[in-house]
Amino acid sequence: MGLQKCGGCLSCLLIPPAFWSIVINILLYFPDGKSLYTSSNNLTNYVWYFEGICFSGIMMLVLAVLLIILDQDTFHKCCQNESCTRSYRRFISVVLALLGIAFSGYSLILSTLGLVQGPYCRTSAGWEYAFKDTAGRYLTDQTFWTQCSEPTYVVEWNIILFSFLIALSGLQILICFLKVIAELKSILCGTYPVFVQPALI
To answer: Where is the chain membrane-spanning (predicted)?
Structure first.
């Protein structure tokens, strides 16, 4: 019972990071609080992959809802007995949690690439990726930041928001991994049979 409650809590914990991933990804479209950079397509290309909105956002919310439903004791029976039903529910939960790791992992990778590449901004040479050849060194050397004159504070904006997306995606991966472990432990070490036992004649 304790392990079941733990798994249910993990499912609920996926909702806040997913919500904030959506919010943060949307904020990336408005550097300096203005929408003109979005309409003129003067944004880093990694915001157009919608990693925070779709993958670690909407898709994770859907997975969280499905996992919460599967955690309920009132779930419709799919087998001849309750033990079998619980086993299949836990197996489906493992599959969904693994999908969650894939979705949040995709968001983590893209957010990391966006952070390393740096923002798309106006420099003395025009609009370009001013830090793409620094291999991320600009993150620790603020003297690079003055190369971007527009949007205002775009470097800080991108660093903070992409870092939050990385942290949230990492948290989702951890929660999904713990969910997989909890469900596998229930299947392999619990009292629920994995396969339907044939009826004795």
So the answer is: 7-28, 48-70, 91-109, 159-178
Which long-range contacts (C-beta less than 8 Å, at least 24 apart) are formed by 73-80? 79/196, 80/196
CB atoms within 10 A of CB 15: 14
Length of the chain: 201
Torsion angle, CA of 182/187/191/194, rounded to 10 degrees? 160
Domain boundaries, given as residue ranges, for the chain: 2-189
Q: What are phi and psi of 42, to 5 degrees?
A: -100, 55
The whole-angstrom separation of Cα 112 and Cα 169 is 10
Other C-beta atoms lying within 10 Å of the C-beta of residue 178 = 16
User: Do 97 and 182 contact (CB within 8 A), yes or no?
Assistant: no
Give this prediction's pTM: 0.86
Nearest residue to 123 via CA among 145, 141, 140: 145
Q: Which helix (H) or strand (E) holds 128?
A: strand 126-129
pLDDT, tens digit (0-9, with 9 covering 90-100), for 14-37:
999 999 999 999 999 999 888 999
Kindly report, residue by residue over 23-81, the tens digit of the pLDDT. 999 999 999 888 999 989 999 999 999 999 999 999 999 999 999 988 886 655 555 55
Q: What is the DSSP letter of 49?
A: G
